[in-house]
Amino acid sequence: MQKRIEVQKIDHQLLWHPFTQRSSAFPPPVIVKARGIKLWDTEGHWYYDTISSWWTSVHGHGHPALVRAVSRQIKRLDHVNFSGFTHPLATELSRRLYLRLPQELSRFFYSDDGSTAVEAAIKLAFQYHANTGNPQKTQFAHFENSYHGDTLGAVGVSGLDDFHAPFEKLKFSSYRLKAPVRPVPTTSCTLNPVGNPCPEDVWRDSETRLRAEADRTAAVIVEPLIQCVAGMLPYPAEYLKRLEKLCKELNILVIYDEVATGFGRTGTFFALDQAGTVPDFLCLAKGLSGGVLPLALTVTTPQISSAFEGFPVRTFFHGHSYTANPIACAAALASLDIFERKKVMEKAAPVRKLFHEILASWCGHAGLGDVRFLGHIGAVDLISPLTRTSWDARLKAGQRVYRKSLEKGLVLRPLGDTIYWFLPLSVREKDLGIIMQRSLDVITGVMEELSKEGPLDGNNTPSGSPRDV
Ligand SMILES: Cc1ncc(COP(=O)(O)O)c(C=O)c1O
After folding, report:
1. CB burial class (10 A; 0-12, 13-18, 19+) of residue 16?
2. Labelling 160: which of 151, 172, 322, 465 has CA 20 to 30 A away?
3. Span 185-190, mean pLDDT?
4. How many angstroms separate the CA atoms of 15 and 94, rounded?
């Protein structure tokens, strides 16, 4: 096996990592092994993977049942084109998911990543209206600071200028709705706002805009209950209930992007279970395969799919080479087995409670602004302990916490100056306690260091420096 220095050298010479400038990247740790919630590097150091490897790993790394399922399947059927053929893994996976979803969601369109699941939903919504005599419905509504992926369709419904401003001229027509998340800056801790009333001013904004644009609007896309890349911002379920009702009235389709929130991450199997609402499209990826292989789904209703039948040709001309890859489907089925046999949701509940208690106890801590959580997701904003205001963006407070966390055997990945945890459902109480104590030590240490350094010269630039996902 190549040595760390050698790998890092070739990496620096040849590779271009996502969301990263080659010149400014510090040599990344070289990971060679992963088990449970830990990642090992070439030197034998390990790190707590507190963000589930980009929100994918659900049961921890190297779960024996997933390993068995993948190795068995690759020997039987590695891949087959899914246009013209089917296979029992895709049918069984769809059947099992159908049993877990509201019964209206009964048409399963496979692809391979979160962005492609969103892309398919957008195109389906657009073509559905064209196929049903409403070709003028070409606009999409989405939240401010929304993130739905990096392919162009997904960028078209993104509200994150940090990422997508360079592509402004390539974006199709869409408009932004205020998100029902906490106001910025917030004076108190958000904690878990899902049961709170819907903020009336935000709802008025959404309702007015959607009514005004109804004739031109094909669909509205939301991340249900929590905006993730925006900063792990949970919001009241009541917003989704009102949105469902209004969109039915206005013939606007609703797309739920559960790419990040699906598979237990928010405390229920899907976020929609908690909201008690049914969208026209549900996008799933990341945790779908248990977090081991690319696999995605756009689930929709018979009402939508029937609009693509018959003549003149109304087919949905869209597909990807690895659609419904059998090995990925085998992993997804094994993941569902783990959920069922091991009673994952029930067993995760006490750890989730402890996670929330720890985070709630941090509210008001020097160096921490808003504290919030939902399910196995939690986040804090970094602030100056002296002034209790945001840091100057040039200080890169979040990045400094990230680097320090790696030294301490922890992955605290920042979203700007927000530090978050996106834990696997398999995390145990003992590990959680260590993770949270270490996290607080790292954050407090960096906040103290920054306070000692004092302010930078020149104008204070607002915090919210470009995010690293
Ligand atoms: C809500 C949401 N949708 C879509 C995506 C895109 O998924 P992928 O990176 O698999 O394309 C992400 C990725 O973080 C996401 O958080």
Report:
1. exposed
2. 322
3. 81
4. 37
Task: For 88-99, write each residue's pLDDT tens digit.
Answer: 999 999 999 999
**Spacing, Cα 221 to ligand 1 middle (Å):** 13
Name the residue with the closest Cα to ligand 1, atom 5: 149
- pLDDT above 50 for 144: yes
Q: How far apart are CA 456 and CA 469, in angstroms?
A: 26
Q: What does the chain come to in residues?
A: 469
CA of 279 to the centre of ligand 1 (A): 18
> Where residue 277 sits, what CATH number does that domain have?
3.40.640.10
Atom number in ligand 1 closest to CA 151: 11
Q: How many other C-beta atoms can be found within 10 angstroms of the C-beta atom of residue 1?
A: 8
The predicted model scores a pTM of: 0.96
Separation of CA 287 and ligand 1 centre (Å): 11
Helical H runs in 311-396? 326-341, 344-361
Question: Apex CA 359: angle with CA 356 and CA 361, to 5°?
Answer: 110
377 and 416, same structural domain?
yes
